[in-house]
Amino acid sequence: MGSAAELAAAVLMVAGFPALMLAALVPSVPAFAAAAAVTYLADHYLHRKGSYLINRLGKVRAGLSIRFLIRQLLLVLLLARLSLADNLISYGAIACFIAFYGLQAPHGALVQLIRNRRRLPVATRNIDLKSRIRIPDAPPRRLMHRSAEKMLHLDLVAVVAILVAAQVHSSLIGFVGIGVTVALGVLYVLALMPYVRGRKTPPNAEKALAAVDDWLREYQPETVLYFSGSKDSAYQVNMWLDTMENLDSKPLIILRERAILNNLAPTTVPVVCVPGGVHLMNLDLSTVRVALYAANVGKNIHLLRVPTMKHVFIGHGDSDKLASVNPYSKVYDEVWTAGRAGRDRYAVADVGVRDDDIVEVGRPQLAPIQPWQGVPEGPRGGAADARCPTVLYAPTWEGWDGNPGNTSIVLAGENIVKRLVAADPPVRVLYKPHPFTGTVSKEAGAAHQRITALVEKAAAERAINPRFVPDTAAHADAKAELQRIEARLAQLSGTGGERRDEAEATRDGLVDVARHEEVARLRTEWNDAYWRAFPSWEHRVITGAEPRLYDCFNVSDAMVSDISSVVSDFIASGKPYAVTDSAEVGAEEFKRNNTAVRAAVILSNSAAELGELLDAVRDPAADPLAEDRKKLKQYLLGPDEPASIEQFNTAVANLALKAETRNVGQQSRDAAALAEAEADTATATETPAATEIEAETATELANALPGQRLSPAGETDGVGTA
Q1: Which of 76, 144, 254, 680 has the fewest Cβ atoms within 10 angstroms?
Q2: What is the distance of C-alpha 73 from the center of its chain?
């Protein structure tokens, strides 16, 4: 249901309709007017909030139109109970509502037609289509946004006027309201009509695709990042945007879902969103030599079928989970891993990926992760802040298979947080769960809620503890800076004005490089101000896109997590970390099965071993795993030199050369075959007599075989053939 306010509005709306019927039967005009006002306002509020109840009412035949119709029918009932059934106002009300609903059909058809025509077969960013095709402005947002609700609410004028007319016994007032409602409905329909004809309609699908092909031929992309998934998986492609911007070859991003495009982070790389498989397969990608895949999904087949490019699985993280050795990876020409560990992982899994097809390229995304400098000395928000380490708890989600070893959140999460918030000397806890947590398992969702409550309760208790003294002035300054930065970011992103539809965003999607750079700088400033806006000893629950996971790494002194790419990434910092053996297979077996935990403190579900992690954080001399972490970092993530982006670019260049070699060889074979065919044709033309003799001989031999005869041209006539 959402918030308490939404629940209250839903109760009022549901109760309002019985109240309307009761007021109509009594009859009482004031009571009817009051109940009608409640239903109008509650309905509007729930629609504006997108309440779950409103979305479900339509499924049980109590949708928006039905609710308005019931209210209008009850108004007619009220007039009848007031002995006005034979009055002209009753006839006018009935005629008004019939005409009003008659306008709903053309209105709904026009809205749907406009939306369909403005939904191009492709949506783009950073691609110049404006100079190639004309995409007109969208209808004003006030006409299209929540259009059905706006159209139905035009009956409000008539309803109010009819109620006033019934109360004061003046039909004239009622007919004025009826006329206004019908006129407004007609004007609404007329206002939409220009957008379905003439120059206000976008180009058809064929012209839009031709424009994209024209741009592709001009731009000549060489390396493609291909991605398909749900809107919640947008982070998997977002993590590769910086890498794509730093490629030596010409990059292009191909997306398959519009929801992913809407959740794509800002980038300067050209982006094409092509939902239709046929449309994608018809795009001119003849210059692309390397295709990179961040996820194993069924729609990959639409690009994998192209033989002129080499296909690479780069994934969206490097871990010991089964997803990192998916047998699907056999379909790619190469699989790129961060370090030697990824290569060994495939060898052990034996899923058909050849060692020759694995290339170690490091992890370019890890460049923002800062190495550990030890627990900071001196206060950062009060005297009690001097030696208060920060521990990040970043569990992964429950996964699809119900394996208890996937996540610690269900069996160990509460124990981990309870021990951390009760630690003495104290530590700060940052809880950042995986965005998919609770999407499959209700138990995981409930555990997440309990952990959130634990952290928030501990934060509230610490805030009133005299041991912890905040620097109120500094925090206030930082919060003011945050507001300034957020206001500027909102201004740059255009959220302050009227939002554009997808067609307009495609037309005007060329990136402003200066603005893009300013946004990047402001986001860095925002991150710095965020951490200064509250005491460094304050426990926090961090959800959403900001602050990012790597930002949390940089302000933390240690981490507790599960088997996932989060652990592999955190190892780049060199900081102490702990991993939970949620399946309780035993520490030795757990380390043997999972490379990334070999330099970790292994936690049982009771989290009793957390003291070892906290000791290593507080005193480097009590950190026996420090050297192991250095060795493991190189094994998992590769060497520090050359830089990972250099390794990545080298791998792209090498694979592009293989693709070009293959294409040249194929062209040579095709040319040789064509030359041979032309030579055979010339020979046949020069010796027709010999050809006739060969045909007669073939006919005689074929007729000698039972059940098969050849026609004079040498082809079987089909008699007796299998």
Answers
A1: 680
A2: 44
The model's pLDDT over 253-285, given as tens digits with 9 standing for 90+, comes to 999 999 999 999 889 999 999 999 999 999 999
Position 294 pLDDT exceeds 90:
yes
Is a pLDDT exceeding 80 seen at residue 125? yes
Q: Which residues pair with 359 in a beta bridge?
A: 336
> Is the CB of residue 315 less than 8 Å from the CB of residue 613?
no
The C-alpha atoms of residue 621 and residue 200 are separated, in whole angstroms, by 72
H/E stretch holding 460: helix 442-463
Q: How far apart are CA 301 and CA 314, in angstroms?
A: 16
pLDDT by residue (tens digit) across 444-485? 999 999 999 999 999 999 999 998 989 999 999 999 999 999
Dihedral angle over CA of 291, 296, 300, 306, nearest 10:
40
Q: What is the DSSP letter of 51?
A: -
Contact of 604 with 405, CB cutoff 8 Å: no
- State phi, psi for 428 to the nearest 5 degrees: -95, 140
Residue 580 contacts residue 598 (beta carbons within 8 Å): no
Contact yes or no for 310/656 (Cβ under 8 A): yes
User: 294 near 312, Cβ under 8 Å?
Assistant: no
Q: List the one residue out of 370, 375, 227, 344 whose CA is nearest residue 293.
A: 227
Look over the chain and give the mean of its residue pLDDT values, rounded to a whole number.
87
CB crowding 624-634: b at 16 or more within 10 Å, else e: ebeeebeebbe
Cβ atoms of residues 204 and 135 within 8 Å: no
Q: Which residues face 255 on adjacent strands? A: 227, 273
Q: Which residue has the higher pLDDT, 719 or 486?
A: 486
Burial class of residue 668 in the structure, from the number of CB atoms within 10 Å of its CB (0-12 exposed, 13-18 middle, 19+ buried)? exposed
- CA 5 to the chain's CA centroid: 29
Q: What is the per-residue pLDDT across 240-253, written as a single tens digit (0 to 9) for each?
A: 999 999 999 999 99
* Type of residue at 655: L
Listing DSSP states for 91-123 in one string gives HHHHHHHHHHHHHHHHHHHHHHHHHHHHS-S-E
Q: What integer is the mean pLDDT of 214-236?
A: 93
Task: Annotate 662-695 with DSSP letters as a single string.
Answer: HHHHHHHHHHHHHHHHHHHHHHHHH-HHHHHHHH
Q: Quick one: which H or E segment has residue 514?
A: helix 513-532
Query: Cα(622)–Cα(348) distance, rounded to whole angstroms?
Result: 34
Most distant pair of Cα atoms in the chain: their distance: 111
From the CB of residue 701, how many other CB atoms can be counted at a distance below 10 Å? 10
CA distance 571 to 341: 13
Give mean pLDDT, residues 293-309: 94
How many whole angstroms separate alpha carbon 260 and alpha carbon 227? 9
Token readout for 226 is: 């291909």
Between residues 498 and 655, the one the model is more confident about: 655
Interstrand relation of 271-273 and 123-125 (parallel, antiparallel or unpaired) = antiparallel
Residue with tokens 């899994």: 349
Token couple for 205: 């699908």
